[in-house]
Amino acid sequence: MSTVHTATGSIDSSELGRTLIHEHVFVMGTEHQQNYGDWDEQARVADAVSRLDELKALGIDSIMDPTVLGLGRYVPRIQEIATQTDLTIVLATGLYTYNEIPFQFHYTGPGLLFDVPEPLTELFVKDLTQGIADTGVRAAFLKCAIEEQGLTPGVERVMRAVGQAHVQTGAPITVHTNPHTQSGLVVQRVLREEGVDLGKVVLGHCGDSTDLDYLTSLADAGSMLGMDRFGLDILLPFEERVSTVVELVRRGYADRIGLAHDASCFIDWFDAEAKEQAVPRWNYRHISEDVIPALLERGVSEADLETMLVTNPRRQFE
Q1: Burial of 300 (0-12, 13-18, 19+ CB in 10 A)
Q2: Structure-derived torsion over alpha carbons of residues 91, 89, 203, 31, reported in degrees to the nearest 10
Q3: How many domains does the chain have?
Q4: Rounded CA gap, 136 and 8, in Å?
Q5: β pairing state of 224-227 and 201-204
Q6: Residue 226: which domain range?
Q7: Cα dist. 280→14, 208, 232, 238, 294 in Å?
Q8: What is the CATH number of the domain that holds 301?
Q9: What is the predicted pLDDT for the residue at 251?
Q10: How many CB atoms lie within 10 A of CB 157?
Q11: What average pLDDT does the segment 12-38 reach?
């Protein structure tokens, strides 16, 4: 057992309970919302509390929220929500980019115009060990991304900074990957070069793939497979997502699987009505209401579910 930092303080890892490993509360462009959005703070907070309470009532105890710089993270809002719900919210630090580094870091770092040690690593370590800004909330895990663009200089710089912060703190890592380009293999190579324990790495969005050779190779190297986009049937249908998990469990990989939706209470990337029509099951309820029954019906045991929902997330922090 070990300590896990949450939006409302520290808990023992044994208190995480059933945990969805990749769920956002808000995903938004803050600057866009401030200039062009129709933002009602009280209404959005109340809606988030309601949705998280509903998830708690469905038997989920905690979510890992990988909303970092680049996705609109604003910790005071999450703190307010966390004090009003019994569901535990575990926050991340890191930077989300598919390509370039934001200008706040573009010119500053090793060998750059302002030649100093990597400020990203310093920032991530501070968030993990001292707290995010002046909120008093400490991040509990790290997050970065790699997409179709591949290992661009900016993506690599963030990934290596995340790896370095992991080595200094032991904090687990979640990486947004594109499984269709097999970028999980790139992630494992880069993080291994930085000295990362691959057993502390969740390779996000593996659930978008049915390529069992690729998925098992990642798991055999020690990483957890993020089967974490249930409800995004537009990217891979429900039946194929479920069947892939069932087959992985049958092959003995239950201890390398984490479950989630990659859903949110609010996301401004899409028109809300169009999103609801395109992916009506992309919400926090889907795993509890649809996925778990389907897995049980196809032979996944309650013990396997306990492994995927409780043991594996908890192990990330221990």
Answers
A1: buried
A2: -50
A3: 1
A4: 9
A5: parallel
A6: 3-316
A7: 33, 17, 9, 12, 18
A8: 3.20.20.140
A9: 98
A10: 21
A11: 95
